[in-house]
Amino acid sequence: MESTPLLDKLRRYIETDGPMSLARYMELCLSDPQHGYYMTRPPFGQEGDFITAPEVSQLFGEIVGAWLVHTWVQQGCPAPFNLVEFGPGRGTLIKDILRVARLRADFMAAMNLHLVETSPRLEEIQRTALSGTNATWHKGFGSIPEGPIFLVANELFDALPIQHFQKAQDGRWLERSVGLNEDRELTLGLGIIELPPHALPPNADKVEAGSVLEIGAMGIALMGAIAKQIKTHGGAALIIDYGYTRTQIGETLQAIKSHQFCDFFRYPGGSDLSSHVNFEALAAAAKAAGAHTHGAITQADFLLRLGLLERAGQLGSGQSPDEQEAIRVAVERLAADNQMGNLFKVLAVTNTQDAPAAFTG
Ligand code: SAH
């Protein structure tokens, strides 16, 4: 492991305070103010470490925009309202959303735009992307003003720190921690914090020792706060991410650098750390706050039900064969089962039982 400023910092922390939880390791790797992954580099695109759906094609953001406007109309056009994007990356998604939203003057007139971003570097890129648009930036959800919210988060929850609990030989589920071995290399261990039995899924006593359960406490708390505001003031949230719809035992924490998987201790702060999102846990958090949930459905179902193919046809008509081919490839990438279509899920949260578009049936 070559030494880097963040690795030195992690070693110092562990040598001073003892092993840290995996969630803390993830948080420092992603968001350390000086050396965190999101703080030091724009991670997206061909030259970056991964490509997100809005970066694949404008079709994605346009469909999300149409859904947001439609849901706002379905709820009786509440005015004023907050349009919120959580974790806007390069600002591509919000730009595509606004291009569609501008077709509805009443939506634009009632809208106050809020972006939640922890990385100053990405905030800067977003400010440039949105120059000329009135928007307010926030470091967390807590400062979003009261009132109805229409919120979207794409690939945000996968980036929030998670805890690992591992089944020990004696059957207890203990929190995984990050410590150092004799060579001062990062290494996994077990801490003393035990997961209470009521937090375990039904099959937990059947799986073998060494099995891992992931708990995304930060994501659950955030979902609860968003749902509470929706319950109180109305609105909707659309959560899009890779993940699963039933709580499962197994580890999904992954590190990606330059479009390749790598060990998550290999490049602290230099690789993207993320985990698959537990949509069952998010839906439960939203319901516990009194809101209604819809889905999660697959990204393929979401996009196709909202007219991905028709919109792609319009976008391609009159274009060169090369451009039409590029659109076809993008559609496949977004919606094919073996690409993003099936792995990515979409969860909607509202304050009424009425299913929003794409979530009926
Ligand atoms: N939504 C964008 C970017 C996804 S990457 C897209 O689809 O292209 C994750 C984004 O969330 C980045 O902008 C990252 O800086 C931001 N982020 C990560 N943790 C965050 C947190 N705790 N609060 C707010 N934003 C966060």
Task: List the main descriptive attributes of the protein structure presented here.
Rossmann fold; 8-stranded mixed sheet; globular; alpha/beta; 361 residues; 14 helices; binds S-adenosyl-L-homocysteine
Order of helices and strands: HEHHHHEHHEHEEEEEEHEEEEEHEHHHHE
Total of domains: 2
Terminal Cα separation, in Å? 51 Å
Under the CATH scheme, the architecture of the largest domain is 3-Layer(aba) Sandwich
Could you say which overall geometry the principal axes of the C-alpha atoms support?
A: globular
Structural class: alpha/beta
| Cα-based radius of gyration, to the nearest Å | 21 Å
Q: Would you give an account of this structure?
A:
There is one protein chain. This protein is an alpha/beta fold and 361 residues long. The protein has 2 domains: 5-37 and 162-212, no CATH class; 40-157 and 215-350, Vaccinia Virus protein VP39 (Rossmann fold), CATH 3.40.50.150. Helix content is 38%, strand content 24%. It is built from 14 helices and 16 strands. Strands 2, 3, 4, 5, 10, 14, 15 and 16 form an 8-stranded mixed β-sheet that branches. A hairpin with a 5-residue loop joins strand 6 and strand 7 (173-180). Helix 12 packs antiparallel against helix 13. The model has no long low-confidence stretch (mean pLDDT 95). The structure holds S-adenosyl-L-homocysteine (SAH). S-adenosyl-L-homocysteine is lined by residues 38, 44, 52, 54-55, 86-89, 93, 116-119, 122, 154-156, 159-160.
